[in-house]
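On clarity, I found the account of how folds are encoded harder to follow than it need be. Since the whole study asks how a given chain folds, the encoding of that fold should be made plain. The format is easy to grasp once an entry is in front of the reader. For illustration, here is how one protein appears when written out as sequence plus structure tokens.
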Amino acid sequence: MIWLLSAATLGLGGCIKPVPLAEPAAPLTPPSRLCAVGEKPPSCRSARQVEDLLSGQLEILGIARTPSGQQGAKILTLRVQAGAHHVVLRAKWRAQSSAGIVNEPRKELAAYAVQKLFLDETELVVPPIVAHCFPLAEYRAFVPDERASIDGSDCVLGFASYWLESVRTASAARKEGLLGGPGEGFWDAELFEKDAMYRRSVGNTNLLSYVIRHGDPHNAQFLIEQTPQGLRTYVVDNSIAFRSIKNPMYFLRDDWSKIRVPRLPRRTVERLRALTDEDFASLATVTELERQGRQLVRVAAPATAKSDGSAMSWSGLRLRIGLTQGEVELVQSRVRDLLARPDLASLVEP
């Protein structure tokens, strides 16, 4: 009974049949891949470029369902001005109104910020994401019953994450022969030994899932991308993380919020070891939006709002969004515990 109640609370009870991935509402502007290690624009987009695009004045061209999931996520086709040209791209979108007791779209932004403390932009395992507030009238053209997110505003606050166009689920990768070995997930012990890209990426994915205490690390959360250097992994749903209740099904399945890989990337561990109290404290303010008239606009200026320990708070006209004090302390303690493991030396790559 407790398990069933927990699953219902998390929004995890029952299954929703997957649907085919919708076509974009307009042709996408190439390139549509994030740059991996050893790559650079213009054959791919850097994470910084994507973050800048998502931080621009976004125009919604279409909204579609995601192929799976139960938390109200949508796929947006967006157009944004980039210099003298328009760029069309897609993003996974979670409106703030879809937040539950433990399933919070804000935590997607938090996970993205945490990984940037110790991963380079070509190594990121969570795609770029920004907070955004769409004008209500524009949003209602696609979702007529949506309401303004904040009193005194006419916009819909949420989180837009770059939609990875060239990835596969673990099960699809297995059917194509990209992954082998027993099981259904994204783990392939033989590939781990011979594919340096896969080894580094899986190690970084495991480290992030551990550091944020991912609460729902099922197979569909992990995606595979074939790059010129090898396979790359991503974890794309981090809305149940940090101090959230864990999905009770992961008492029975592989739990990637624990260290499961036989070896960890040395460079990543060294970067974790180099983090300071100030680095962790910076997570309290990840982004700010400013009230301009009846809209909220993301500001590019350095963080100015002092955290009160909550996830979101106002300072004058600015809305601060970040990690709670408890979440910051959790991240710091999990990094500290990892670095204090007596077997760490044997886990780190030679």
Remarks:
- Confidence is low (pLDDT under 50) at residues 1-15.
- Residues 196-211 form the longest helix (16 residues).
